[in-house]
Amino acid sequence: MAWYPGATKMELQPESDQQPAIRPTQFLVHSIVGPWTARRTYEYWRDSTNLESHFGIGYAGDIAQYIGTETRADANASANRRPDGTGAISVETASNLTATDPWTDKQVEELIKAGVWVHHQHGIPLRLCRTADDPGYGWHAMHAAWNPDAHSCPGPARIKQFREVVFPGIVARASGKTPAPNPTPSKEKPMSYREMWEQDIAPAPSKSPTLKTNPTWKPISFLREIYDLALETRNLVREIRAAQKKGA
Ligand SMILES: [Zn+2]
Known about the structure:
Elements: E1 8-9, H1 15-18, E2 23-31, H2 38-48, E3 55-57, E4 63-65, E5 86-93, H3 105-122, E6 136-139, H4 156-174, H5 193-197, E7 202-203, E8 216-217, H6 219-247
Parallel strand pairs: 1-4, 2-5, 2-6, 3-5
Antiparallel strand pairs: 3-4, 7-8
Bound molecules: zinc ion.
């Protein structure tokens, strides 16, 4: 089992000893629908339910770990532990009672730091999960298999933050491209070709036939797709013209 040195250890027993091992391949974020500190979340797991997450983050950036990341935690339905022994690391975060508020800056910072740690510790790949079993990063409502109740956890505002701030922050820091936690714009290096074109986080075209299984594309994929379509269209126009000439 692995414990994140950046979090306060609040080990849940007997779950920590009794639940089966996993090989963590995913990092999934949640809202707990309560304005709770990391300790209050621990007490909830301990006293009120047999569910639990691996981590909890309060509004003030207080972060605790309740169960080792190589032990199953029960927050994401079928992703907790799959038959092949892989599973998801789960992070619950304090929210308002309707899970509609954005994360605080301190929560964002802790999510990024924990996300970087799981990449280095467990080799979780720096991409959004393309399918329910695909190794990577995501949020609870991202795939139905993780979320049989079809709720919107962690909430639309946070899903947007995850896509636009948290996940890009994890990628940037884990790949060593952005050493400072909050770089000022003037000091920011321009993005490299790879960062710009190879980051698999742009929402796929709404008419894409693989939208369900491949919800995000790299910008480079858009360029190639557009090139192919343009070529196809040009050839079609030529064929139509040739046919018109023959007919004329
Ligand atoms: Zn959730």
